[in-house]
Write a structure and sequence with these properties.
Layout (H helix, E strand, L loop, with lengths): L1 E7 L5 H18 L3 E10 L2 E10 L4 E7 L2 H25 L16 E6 L7 E6 L26 H11 L3 E5 L5 E6 L5 E5 L2
Parallel strand pairs: 1-2
Antiparallel strand pairs: 2-3, 3-4, 5-6, 7-8, 8-9
Helix pairs in contact: 1-2
C-alpha cells in the first residue's frame, strides 16, 4: 500500500500510522489495492484535522474531518471515504463495460433477397431487412413530482401560466368540465395540449 504522510504541527507516531493503515485495509477490500493515498494531519489550536485523499483510476475520493482528538478525526475521515468508495464502486459496476462496436450492416441471416417484377426479365432484386422481435428498452427512472399536478380545475390559460411559473415541461390538470389534460413543452419551447380519453 502506497501511503504518503504529511504532518503540519503534528508528529506522526506509529499508532497513528497503524490507525490509518487499518482503516485503509477496509477500503482496500472495497476498491482493490490499486490506489495512491495521501494523508495530511494538521493541528490548529485545539482542533485536530485529518484530510485523506485516495486516487483510484481517474477520480479522487477525499475525506476531511475535524475533532478534538486525532484518532477520532482519522476515523471520521476514513468513514467518509468508505461511503464514497461504495458509491464509486456501485457506479463503476453499473456502467456499461462493453466495447462499442461500429455497425457493419446486418448479419447475413437477417437479410432476405427477394425479386420484384412481373416476369423473370423485368425482376429487380430487393433486400428485405428483418429486425429483432424484442426491442431493448432502458429501465425507467421514476421521480414523483407533486409540482406537476394541479389540485383544482383550471382553464387552459391558467394552466399554461401555472406550468411556466412552476418551470415544468409536463403539467397535468383538469379543465372546468373535469377532463384530464396534459400540457407538454416541446424542445423548441412550444406548449402542446394532450387530452386524456
Amino acid at each position: 500500500m502506497n501511503v504518503e504522510y504529511t504532518g503540519r504541527q503534528f508528529d506522526i507516531t506509529p499508532r497513528i500510522r497503524k490507525e490509518v493503515e487499518t482503516g485503509l485495509a477496509k477500503i482496500e477490500k472495497i476498491l482493490g489495492g490499486n490506489f495512491k493515498t495521501k494523508v495530511i494531519l494538521t493541528v490548529e489550536k485545539h482542533r485536530h484535522r485529518a484530510e485523506i485523499t485516495i486516487a483510484p483510476r481517474n477520480t479522487a475520493l477525499v475525506g476531511v474531518a475535524e475533532a478534538s482528538d486525532m484518532i477520532a478525526a482519522i476515523g471520521e475521515a476514513l468513514d467518509r471515504i468508505a461511503q464514497q468508495a461504495l458509491k464509486y464502486k456501485t457506479r463503476w459496476r453499473t456502467r456499461k463495460r462493453q466495447a462499442k462496436k461500429k455497425w457493419a450492416g446486418e448479419p447475413p441471416e437477417q437479410r432476405v433477397q427477394v425479386a420484384v417484377g412481373s416476369s423473370e426479365f423485368t425482376a429487380v432484386p430487393v433486400v428485405v431487412h428483418k429486425f429483432p422481435p424484442l426491442v431493448r428498452t432502458a429501465e425507467a427512472h421514476v421521480v414523483k413530482a407533486k409540482d406537476s399536478v394541479a389540485l383544482r380545475p383550471l382553464t387552459l390559460e391558467e394552466a399554461i401560466k401555472e406550468a411556466q411559473f412552476r418551470d415544468r415541461d409536463v403539467f397535468v390538470f383538469r379543465d372546468l368540465q373535469g377532463k384530464v389534460m396534459v400540457l407538454h413543452r416541446t424542445r423548441d419551447g412550444k406548449m402542446e395540449l394532450i387530452e386524456a380519453p
